Amino acid sequence: MGDIEGMFNQVKVNEHHRDFLRFLWYPGGNLNQPPETYRMTTHPFGAVSSPACAASALRQCATDSEGQVSREVVSTIRRSFYVDDVLKSLVDDDQGIDVRRGVTTAVKEKGGFRACQWISNSKPVNDSIPLSERSKKLELAIDSEELPTERALGIIWDTETDTFTFKIRLKVKAATRRGILSVISSVFDPLGLAGPFVLPARILLQRLCKQDIAWDDTISEKEMNEWSQWLVDIQKLE
Q: Which SUPFAM superfamilies match (predicted)?
């Protein structure tokens, strides 16, 4: 797993599009003077167009690298990036080392991107990563016999055991339809791995909807007990 550093700001905006990215600025922070109009020359974080433009530039790196790097490297750039994050599974250490190096070189030479924050569940692959390009958690664990945990698109990845885990941090909400929906939605699970554990709470919420209970009405004692028990049980998901 790796990351493109400051991805959006590495991609230039065509000059005839820069008027869409104008902003006002007070030179020297002097609010008593009229503001001046500036234009962004690179894609800013927050613009709706930035992810697509940056992704297009990254994919162009793959096209421009064809025939110069392995097919696996080209495929990784095209198919294994989620915006600026790359996640790739490979069969052995040597292939992992080669692909990481190939991706780093290709995006740098063809697009000016810096691939960094690399981490793997393989110690030989981690040892091949230059210190300046390693994940911060990997740097901190350099003297440890165990590999660290890292976030992979919001999921906790234990690189030592190569398993996904969960961090359950539920906010206290009122036991109403609104509060229950809010708590259920806070269990981040894009792969659906926690589905069997979240399902009882979803069934409870469905039952409350069928009863035509208002969003902020108090639920019955029986359903309150079910909800309280689920709040206790879901902590075990960790």
A: DNA/RNA polymerases
